[in-house]
Amino acid sequence: MASGGVSPLTSVSPVPSLQESTAPSTSSPIAQTTNSSSTTPPATKICVFCGSSPGLSPAHMAMARSLAQYMASQKISLVYGGGTVGLMGEIARTLVSLSGPTSVHGIIPAPLVKYERGPDSEAVAEHSRENGSGLPEYNVYGKTTVVKDMHTRKSMMAQEVLAGGPGSGFIALSGGYGTLEELMEVVTWNQLGIHNRGVVVLNVEGYWDGLMAWIKNSVEAGFVGEGNKGIVVDAKTAEEAVKALRDYKLTVGRFKLEWGNE
Question: What's residue 116's pLDDT?
């Protein structure tokens, strides 16, 4: 989490030397406010945390596609980590193919470009540092913003979700250390009252069973309050996950702290 007394959701800027992969008419990489001049409600935005690997079971990639397909059917936009490989690339490509490039916003730190992209990504990253080009194709992966570090990435993704309409929130597909860290940070932010959006794990083949067991054990051991055991919702299908965000109820044990960003 951010230190030095600054809210984790304080506005941040992308790396100045890098440009976005986006259509020329696209505005600021992150909306600071919802539609103040229009009666049209803001679009629902779901931030999906997931691995840059495909996993060994085909079920993980299949779920990424299923979630993208259901999001497209519900006209929901995707915010994600900006990678083009593994589950990250699969969900972005699928949603863009169904809903167009304006439905996806990837946010990636510059040092991770060569790890969360395809085989030519290191050359692409160097090219981007030199002239701001070479980012993922807009018509394949949607809008991409390259930022300076992990904290900026996570803060921008959270701000996108907070600017979204009803049903906006966070879903974790399968992933590794990075996915778990991102998930647990938004869980902690929910508990602390930093945001009021739902948090769901899409539990493919029992992937998140260990986490759900850990939460139960933490409650029983007295380290997580009984009133906060329901911050994370366990879902088995894309439809269940999206419905869980729409129906999400804040836990009774949530800290009512003033952070100045809700």
Answer: 60
